[in-house]
Structures are given as C-alpha cells and as structure tokens.
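Inverse folding, one chain.
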C-alpha cells in the first residue's frame, strides 16, 4: 500500500488496464486513462487523472502521481485499451484530433519529461 490508509482510500487507484495519453498544445501534458472491468453486480468504469507530474517504479507496478496528488498504481502487464476505456479514447480523438496521442506500450516511463500546466502557473 502507498501512503497512509486515508491516502489509500481517498486517492489511490489500481486499474485493471491503463494507457498514457499525451495532450499537445501550448503546455503538453500526459494523463493516465484507466479502466476497471465490471462484474455481474457492477459495470465497467474508467477514470482519467489530473495530469502526471511524477512516476515511480516498483517490481510489478508503475505508480503515476497526478497534479491533484492522486496515485495510480498501474500493473506493468495491464497496458492497453479495453472495452472499459476505448470509448473514452475514441471521444478524445474525435474532439482533439491530432492534438492527442496514445503513447506506445514500450516507453520507458522513468525517462519521460512529465510536463504539465500546474494550477498555480496562472497566478
């Protein structure tokens, strides 16, 4: 578990599958698009983080830390679009056209320059 019990409950996510989306523009930034597979009693769901500012690595997971402080523990074998998040990716492509890119699976996430427009940058 990452952090305290409260942090784990409030802002720690462990998706079944995930991808990294790069947004182009004046301030390029990256976001985690995560998906959870549903079961008999619950449907599938997805979530996109506020924007990646840092990444950590352990043996089995990439841990992406968002601008809001959230942490996405993404299993290294879970990269990819599935039915739970592919519709969101398709909408992003429709809206943003060539300003959005799905990052390749083989990227060394530790070497990416995680640029993001921070909330306090406009003040």
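Residues assigned per position:
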């Amino acid at each position: 578990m990452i952090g305290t019990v409260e942090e784990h409950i409030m802002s720690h996510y462990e998706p079944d599958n995930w991808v990294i989306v790069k947004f182009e523009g004046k301030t390029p930034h990256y976001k985690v698009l995560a998906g959870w597979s549903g079961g008999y009693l619950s449907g599938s769901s997805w979530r996109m983080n506020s924007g990646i500012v840092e990444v950590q690595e352990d043996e089995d997971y990439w841990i992406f830390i968002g601008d809001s402080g959230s942490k996405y523990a993404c299993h290294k074998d879970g990269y990819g679009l599935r039915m739970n998040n592919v519709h969101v990716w398709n909408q992003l492509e429709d809206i943003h056209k060539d300003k959005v890119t799905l990052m390749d699976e083989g990227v060394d996430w530790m070497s990416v320059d995680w640029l993001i427009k921070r909330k306090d940058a406009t003040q």
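DSSP finds two helices and eight strands in the chain. The two ends are 35 Å apart (CA to CA).
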